[in-house]
Amino acid sequence: MSKRSKIVRAFEYLFLSIVAFISVFPFFWMIIAATNKSVDVTRGAMLPGTYLIENVKALMSSSLNYFNAFKNSLIIAVVTTALAMVISSAAGYAFEIYKTKVKTTIFNIILLSMMIPFAALIVPLFRMFTKFKNVPILSFFSLDTQGSVIIIAVATAFLIFFFRQNTKTFPKELVEAARIDGLGEFRIFTKIYMPTMKSTYAAAIVVTFMSSWNNYMWPLIALQSDSNRTLQLIIAAMGASYTPDYGMIMVAVVIATIPSALIFFLMQKQFVAGMTGSVKG
Amino acid sequence: MKKKVLAALLAATMVFGLAACGNNSSNETTADTTAAASAETSADTSAPTDETTAAADGETITIWAWDESFNIVAANRAKEIYQAENPGVNVEVVTMAQDDIVTKLNTSLSSGSYDGLPDIVLIEDYRIQGYLTSYGDEFADLSSIVSADDFASYKTGVTQKDGVMYGVPFDSGVAATFYRTDLIEEAGYTQADMEDMTWEKYIEIGKAVKEKTGKNMLTLDPSDIGQIRMMLQSAGAWYTDADGNVTLADNQALKDAITIYKSMVEADIATQISGWDPFVGAFNNGDVASVITGCWIASSVKNAEDQSGNWAVAAFPKMEANSSSVNASSIGGAGWYVLKNVGHEATAVDFLGKTFASSTDLMNQLAADINLVSTLTAAESVENYSVGDEFFGGQEVFNDFAAWTQEVPTVNYSLHTYAIESIVAEAVQAIVDGADMDETLADYQAQAEAAVAQ
Amino acid sequence: MNSKLNRKAWLFIIPSVVLIAVFVFYPMIQAFFTSLQSGMANNLEFAGLANYKRLFNDSTFKKALFNTILYLVIQVPIMIILALVISSMLNDKKLKGRGLFRTAIFLPCVTSLVAYSIIFKSLFANDGFINAVLMNLNIISQPITWIADKFYARVLIIIAITWRWTGYNMVFYLSGMQGIDDSIYEAAAIDGATGFQKFKSITLPLLKPIILFTTINSTIGTLQLFDEVYNITSGKGGPANATITISHYIYNLLFRYQPNFGYAAAVSYVIVILIMILSFIQMKVGDDKE
């Protein structure tokens, strides 16, 4: 390596290390805080304490049912992500591969739906959902069901937009070739497109899961029974106290971070896997 | 291809089936409560409200409140007391963040939907008039269990509308001056100086404390002008007049309050913070010599165990320049309300009647458990109030709080406290930064009027 | 395209269209009609454009608008550039520890909102870690009151948002870069191109669709910014509304003050119009000619 590129390389390591440190530090602080007493946490303790077991015990005996909420969040996130990967990606794929003027217009209209702040939709949505209770199929999604949280997040302009943009770099010749080989359109989607776009799906899975996991506003409004509450709602209830027990809250939060981190960890190899089966030359 | 589509649909249905399975328990409880509700309402219409026959076996009432270490503890104690006499009634106490309670109440009540709403809900005093005005038909008349004489007058003023009592007042937000006796002494003052003092004297002492000990006297939060609120109430005034009209420009008490606020900033005796934790952290860490706020801060003050014995509590300061100002005020505080259309009105009312509306035993226990200063007049002399608190140098703080509670001037918080205060906070900042007081207040008066004109 | 293919194509699209039409457009249109009404809670009466007129004189709204646009103009470019640089570095197969760096930089995104606001509030408190470090390095002599100061509170918000979302955009760029063949880079290296030139002439143009996606996404996200500000300023948008965003103001109008659903809807539509204009501009500038 030339001297110049050595310096550049060294600079890159330094830069990335600083960025990584800044990114990780609050996390690291969070884990330390989980081992400390609440009062010490507010005083800004930097060293690990000995309070971890007590904090975990406090969490388990809290009147807020943490682990049930964890389960609820997990189910919602997994189902939402799975469905979104089929429904939204199919739309994004189709808008690009089968492009027509009409479809592009519809796509642009769908983009509009990203532009309204969710807060403005809460009350009208809530009222709509109160009517679902009595309709046969729709009662699966009525208020206070996990369905009501899932159904909202399955088709989003965000994901459709994402898949459409990524599909622009997908070699359309593959589609032609597959048609000549006699594959049906749906088969082309599942057997050719999906495997080739693994990297895109990996990224989409991570962000969809994360977004569902961290979702607050709609679950707050739609879910009503205590037993249906999701994790973020429980953590917020813990934090909204005159004397929050920060040690316990940090344990709750560290545990709450694990699923998203895990999904990222599992998927990240895929981001950099490269496209399989690309047409060369 | 059709097969694939069918397969996909099938898969989707199965997935939803799975998800729905997980909701069976919630469907069941909804069925339960609706059955109980219909049994309940038929009992209601056939007989006049009679406390002793209200509770139906197997019935569940739900209570929403915030703060696991304070309100929830209170609700659970009340639940124990009630269930001792009425073992057949289930009481579910749910912890939710206060903001979330407000969000859900507004969304559900405005949509006429009662699923998932609680029977009893804790509502902050500043908010209740707004709810009573917007959703008046949703709240149960509690005249049968509460009368205005049973509680401190400034609290019952808040829970009524058109002469009808809708709420059971709960905790006292009576304001007091918590201060460090050691730091005051170091500055050359005695505890006697802190008794029944004026703000002007407070500032003077603050300057001495800063000079002799280097510590600031208090914290100020530009987004939370609680001090202004308290000063207003001590003078029997508010952001609105008796008719509910916004009054900022011609509000003498407000001008006096802002003048004092500004002097504190200019005397450099205040630490600027924002948010709850830095607020508590400041006195827990010994960075400030005093904190003037509601009596409910006592448990937070006592968190710093190493400061035990060095604190005392004096009355709220009055504004010398304002002749209506007294040494008493309030900040915060809430009450228990019953949502009558959720289905268990009679039981909920009975519950409150036997606990928060009358039980001095409950109040006594809560004084010990959560440092509750009750507003129930009958609880003024419960035994736990006469216990000296070592942390405060042996002072019988509860007796003091209870006594001061009776002196708090009654004020009509009207409907838009938070909206107006957000605007006033901007005005205060502008004035502190040097803008002309009368001009700024006139400006913001127009803003506030626009904000509340519906 | 023949009509048979076209019909099949619609099958891919219909589920999404139906869902979005029902769960977004229908309430969106309802919200529009609500914006033409005014009143407390359920006492709504038709008011025409009164709500929109009210916006012009609303000082809090103007503050919120200013703050929101400020965040947009400063924060989004910083974050996009940072994310591009980082992913470009991390795309180099010869760099060691890429997996670790990737995970570390993405970690802020998975931190729950509650946690990260508690952490940031603590780190940037008057006696917090950041002030301690800055004082030790003699960069400042007095602790900065981050959260209680008009200027620094905004700086803090920008830092917080950048911290949180850079990794997110990094993921999109990294995944997009997988579509760029290594051989192109190799050929350029043989021709003597430096890292920077490769970045400018190869990466950027080929990533254009993704970059456009992230800028529009970030623009929309920042214009709708709520969570970060709400949590870090403990719901107040302070100090004295110095950091409040439009979404936060809408939230206050809906839930914190006496609910005026009509006015809140009107404010929401202002955001919609803003976003529409900005996105339209970005699309025209960035989208590939078809």
Describe, in plain words, how this protein is organized in 3D.
The complex is a heterotrimer of chains A (281), B (454) and C (290). Chain A has 281 residues and is mainly α. Chain A has a single domain (59-271), classed as MetI-like fold (Orthogonal Bundle), CATH 1.10.3720.10. Chain A has 14 helices and no strands. In chain A, helix 8 packs antiparallel against helix 11 (198-214). The longest helix of chain A is centred in the first third of the chain and has 32 residues, at 66-97. Residues 275-281 of chain A have low confidence and may be disordered. Chain B folds into two domains: 54-172 and 332-381, D-Maltodextrin-Binding Protein, domain 2; 175-329 and 411-452, 3-Layer(aba) Sandwich (D-Maltodextrin-Binding Protein, domain 2), CATH 3.40.190. Chain B is built from 18 helices and twelve strands. Chain B has helices at 2-21, 24-46, 71-85, 98-111, 125-134, 153-158, 181-186, 191-194, 199-213, 226-234, 252-266, 276-284, 298-301, 345-354, 360-370, 397-405, 417-432, 437-452; strands spanning 60-65, 90-95, 120-124, 160-161, 164-165, 167-169, 175-180, 218-220, 270-272, 290-294, 311-315, 334-338. Chain B has a five-stranded mixed β-sheet with strand order 2-1-3-12-6. In chain B, helix 3 runs antiparallel to helix 15 (360-370) and helix 10 packs across helix 11. The termini of chain B are far apart. In chain B, 56% of the residues are buried. Residues 1-54 of chain B have low confidence and may be disordered. Chain C is mostly helical and 290 residues long. Chain C has helices at 3-35, 50-56, 59-90, 98-110, 113-123, 129-136, 150-177, 182-190, 195-206, 208-223, 227-232, 246-256, 261-286, and strands spanning 37-38, 45-46. The model of chain C has no long low-confidence stretch (mean pLDDT 85).
Most residues in contact, chain pair and counts? A-C, 103 and 99 residues
Total strands of chain B: 12
Q: Give the count of helical stretches of chain B.
A: 18
Largest sheet of chain B: 5 strands, mixed
Question: So, CATH architecture of the largest domain in chain B?
Answer: 3-Layer(aba) Sandwich
Provide the CATH architecture of chain C: Orthogonal Bundle
Radius of gyration of chain C: 23 Å
Assembly context of the chains: heterotrimer
Order of helices and strands of chain B: HHEHEHEHHEEEEHHHEHHEHEHEEHHHHH
- What is the 3D shape of chain C? flat
Principal-axis shape of chain B equals globular
Q: Which structural class do you get from the secondary structure elements of chain C? A: mainly alpha
Helical coverage of chain B, percent range: 40-55%
Give the terminus-to-terminus CA distance of chain B: 57 Å
Instruction: Tell me what portion of residues of chain C adopts beta-strand conformation.
Output: under 5%
Question: In CATH, what is the homologous superfamily of chain C?
Answer: MetI-like
- How are strands sequenced across the largest beta sheet of chain B? 2-1-3-12-6
Number of DSSP helical runs of chain C: 13
**Relative helix content of chain C:** over 70%
User: How many domain regions of chain B?
Assistant: 2
